[in-house]
Amino acid sequence: MPETRHGGPLLQIYVIVLFLLTGASAEDEQQPIAQPDFAIYHTKEQILEEVDNIAKANPHIMKVENVEYGDESSDPPYRANMKVVTVEPGGHTRDHSRKIRLLLNYGEHGRELITVEVALRLLQTLADPSAELEMAERWREAGMPDLRATLHNTVFKIIPMENERGREIVEEGALCERKNGRGVDTNRNWEVHWGFKESDYDPSEEFPGEKPFSEPEAAALLALATQFKPHVWMNVHSGMEALFMPYDHLAAIPKGATAQATLEVLEKMNNISCGGRCATGSGGKSVGYLAHGTATDYMYDRLKVPLSLTWEIYGDNDAHFNDCFRMFNPTTREKFDEVVANWANAIFVLLELLPAHPAIPTARNLGRKVEAGGLLPRGALEAVKEAKVERRLGSAMHMSMHSNMTDSARLGEHLFGIPQARKGLIGGVCVVAILSLGLAVMLKGYVTKKRTRRRRLQSV
Ligand SMILES: [Zn+2]
Prior knowledge:
- The protein has helices at about 10-25, 45-55, 115-125, 130-140, 145-150, 165-170, 205, 215-230, 255-275, 285, 295-300, 325-330, 335-355, 380-385, 395-415, 425-455, and strands at about 60-70, 80-85, 100-105, 155-160, 230-235, 240-245, 280, 305-315.
- By secondary structure, it is an alpha/beta fold.
- It has 2 domains: about 10-30 and about 395-455, no CATH class; about 45-385, Aminopeptidase (3-Layer(aba) Sandwich).
- An 8-stranded mixed β-sheet has the order 1-2-4-3-5-8-6-7, with helices on both faces.
- Helix 2 runs parallel beside helix 3.
- The chain is globular.
- It starts with 8 loop residues before the first helix and ends with a helix.
- GO terms for molecular function: metallocarboxypeptidase activity; zinc ion binding.
């Protein structure tokens, strides 16, 4: 066996300098870690109180159930509560079988505070939908279905905050926490491809639990969905901007006309509610990362919910990987208001588009007469809103690559300017130093963005 050569002291010094450059540059350029401003955001207790108040003020169309599920076999027992708000804009009915049924879930991950704020705004808007109906009136003139009639035939079940226990941990200061009160990601706890682990699996982010539906939060949602049989399941998250459909655990959307119609709905939603910025399509394909044991895949695959969706409503691509509040939530009042209003209204946009979907009951099949429901006239939507479709997939990664390429190119230019003027030792040292700096910058960019990307992908 030949003797291993370790190089001379110069090489060793070079390696040490390179290491120091990389380490030092990884610490720079970080903004202070953002904290939630509770002058803008509600606390968990304020949210729950406000939900009760809205429902109490509108008893003819809203009612709240306090659902409690527990795992008594664990020591100590683990219990979880969640509020489920039933909203029937046409007035309460006992039989929901002849209505369009939407099951909307917010606050599954504790650190995504903004989603809960959207739920609260949606409840406020449903309590007084006059502004949306006024807007819809203008749309109707452009050939859209009658939102008033659709609302009249719709029943919502809204969970404003699925993961109350996880939210408590976030409010205690663990701003990067997404899991529930005992360290399980409830969006990995569903029995579809459960427990499958990718090579970069990180238990601190996505521990799926000891077995499927071990977690009270997931078990409660399963019971609710099984009984309610929704046409639409919507799981609302943050960390990026995307409108996802199944599958999360495969890099493909399901085959068939229903899935294709769902994709078309999402692409229209992207134009109207996301300025064309949202990634659309299968979660697994669009983020380039597979998630196993998710609620959206289960709802579609096992409970046969035709429109099974995950909306990602906000993300800050430039946030440092430790700066979780900033990464998942707007930090200014202005942006907060914009995101909350936009994504609460997006439900009404969805309701405008639903009658065109083949899995949604037509006016004829619904319990009450729908005056102007039915198929969406071709081109009507485009007449209302002209927007350019622009799919941005993995924008953060692309931006970071672009930025690194620019740095490298600049270094290259710099590099090519030097050698003709100087030859020998000084020139050589300069070239090596510049190459090292370039390598350090690229390594720093790679390490930081890889970690950032990892956490952002955990938004689902
Ligand atoms: Zn999430």
